[in-house]
Fold:
Amino acid sequence: MISRRTSRAVAALLGLVALAILGYALRWRSNPSPCPYSQRYAIDLPRPIITRSRLREVLEPRPGERVLEVGPGTGHYTGTVARAIDPSGTLHAVDVQSEMVEHLRTRTREEGRSNVEAIRGDARSLPYSDDTFDAAYLVLVLGEIPDQQRALDELERVLKPDGRLVVGESLPDPHFVGFERLRRRVERRGLALDARVGTRAGYFARFDADTSERSADPVE
Structure:
């Protein structure tokens, strides 16, 4: 039988561990940064709410479209969307980490995907002209960007006048962006909410461009 003293020691140790985890999460949340390449294996863990099939359902990628993925990481969602826009569509995958880009290039090559263009780039300054993409999406990424306002401005800029944007978020991601906060930010840029699936703890939200409501200088 475990003594009372031992039980207290174990409880105290577990408490310290919990505090350490909480402190790490709070520090990470207050200092936005992408998932390090050394922790890439966590990227492909199951995502019960924000699944690949649900992303495809909300994004509605179509053959021949030009689609942008911001922050693909190792490519958890990339293959699903790339297949949907075959045979003549192209998926441009932009990640800020060179290691992730090389990993994704290797992965798509091994999978025989020729319609994925993975490049290193910053969401705050996308290397594309205005009105380039039919659709864009980012999953578990927005909260990792130091300047979310600028990233949303860039996404609105590169979308075509009838384009669509899908954002996916889910707990326990320490950079989780709540739906209402996201909605306010995106709608200030003239994109209207069209669909949402999921729960408060995890969701996909789709916004469609509306040129009649786009703001020249959105304010947070």
Observations:
- The two ends are 59 Å apart (CA to CA).
- Residues 37-209 form a domain with the Rossmann fold fold (CATH 3.40.50.150).
- Confidence is low (pLDDT under 50) at residues 17-29, 211-220.
